[in-house]
Amino acid sequence: MRVDLGNALETTPGITTETLDRLDERVAAAHDRIAAGMADDEFGYAALTLPETADPDRIHAAVDGFDRPEAVLTVGIGGSALGAATLATALESDVDAYVLDNVDPDDARALLDDLPLADTVVNVVSKSGTTAETLANFLVAREAMADAGVDWTDRTLVTTGESGNLRELADRHGLPSLPVPDGVPGRFSALSTVGLAVAALQGHDVEAVLAGGRDGMASLSGSLYESPAYAYGAATYALAERGARTNAVMPYAESLETFAEWFAQLWAESLGKDGLGQTPARALGATDQHSQLQLYRAGPPDKLVTLVRPTERADVPIPETDLDGLAYLGGSSLGGLLDAEFEATEASLAAADVPNVRVEIDRVDERSLGELLYGMEAACVLYGELASVSTFTQPAVEWGKKAARGLLGGGDFPEADAVTEKRELRVD
Ligand SMILES: O=P(O)(O)OC[C@H]1O[C@H](O)[C@H](O)[C@@H](O)[C@@H]1O
């Protein structure tokens, strides 16, 4: 992963090389803190050791009992779905991957009706084993399998913590299961059993993903000038401090569209605390050049745009044409056009003084993805240290979870009372 901060210098809001030089001393101290947390396997920091601690053999052993399926359906939400989904969207496989995260009845029904259930592995993932959406969706999926005459115990893989509903279910039915590693918050679990089981089921090279993570790990150092991940974390923090409240993440590759979704959870849930944080916006190049870019370039100067691209990709030539106005396209390629759009957008933002950061990976493959995911997690942890927020907790999310559970009669949660206290100003 390579990071270029040049277009974040002298912009509005903006940073200078002096800003970064001053910040580098704090990066050194933050790195010491992070390294100590990693060495002690402290909650959260333990996620940054996953490239070394994750056990690919265990993942293979859990999935190898399933003959190569036609499809894999992940039933999970947030950190228990987005890592796997990011890899599945990015990497091609003849095993189709689907995610059932939301509890939208139409969507769940349509998905389950379409799936070849007899040839699908249902991969149910919940660290806590209590998330209502996941458990409800799993019960619905299990019934759909039974209705289709499929023995669900033959087709279900469970990934969960040491105890709880799903652990009990796996033990009771002797289901293949994987542990969620200790000390790893869901949104930091992409490089663990949570994110990698689907990749293994799809036939991807799980070891290469972890090797990419190790490349990212090896590049962490006490200076932002030596570590692309820390360069990104430090610059985004400094820009946020100066007013870049939104970080629009814009990959120039369809295959990285879900990466932006994964990034949004990582950034929002980890850094949105104590009145601080940076709102992640999801965009896609070149498509959103024709929509959102207007706002990013000419709207309120409270944004940063992160442009992400692979430097190598398979290409499609653009055929020659005898239309004079289109002659410039002929002989070029879709990839060439996409790269030109990337650089044009970067320049257009810079010309309007809008800070933007370029993040490049070599290509969309297992190793580069492992490095990208690791790099963004390390960037996020560094940002959290610099901002002094509690990066690995999510009390605001938990609040809503409790309120919903109370409403459904799943326990006595005072948070549910707030629902009856809702203010109204109706216009019918
Ligand atoms: O894995 P689970 O325990 O089911 O949790 C799934 C998700 O639930 C919550 O909303 C948390 O805030 C997320 O960080 C987590 O990824």
UniProtKB/TrEMBL annotation:
Gene Ontology terms: biological process: gluconeogenesis; glucose 6-phosphate metabolic process; glycolytic process
Keywords associated with the record: Cytoplasm, Gluconeogenesis, Glycolysis, Isomerase
CDD domains according to UniProt: SIS_PGI_1, SIS_PGI_2
Molecular-function GO terms, alphabetical: carbohydrate derivative binding; glucose-6-phosphate isomerase activity; monosaccharide binding
One annotated Gene Ontology cellular component of this protein: cytosol
Database matches in HAMAP family: G6P_isomerase
PROSITE patterns cross-referenced by the UniProt entry: P_GLUCOSE_ISOMERASE_1, P_GLUCOSE_ISOMERASE_3, SIS
Catalysed reactions listed for this entry: alpha-D-glucose 6-phosphate = beta-D-fructose 6-phosphate
Isomerase in keyword set: yes
UniProt-listed InterPro entries: G6P_Isomerase, Phosphoglucose_isomerase_CS, SIS_dom, SIS_dom_sf, SIS_PGI_1, SIS_PGI_2
Domain SIS: 62-217
Protein name per Swiss-Prot or TrEMBL: Probable glucose-6-phosphate isomerase
Superkingdom assignment: Archaea
Family as reported in the entry's similarity comment: Belongs to the GPI family.
Subcellular location: Cytoplasm
Known pathway: Carbohydrate biosynthesis; gluconeogenesis; Carbohydrate degradation; glycolysis; D-glyceraldehyde 3-phosphate and glycerone phosphate from D-glucose: step 2/4
Pfam families to which the protein is assigned, alphabetical: PGI
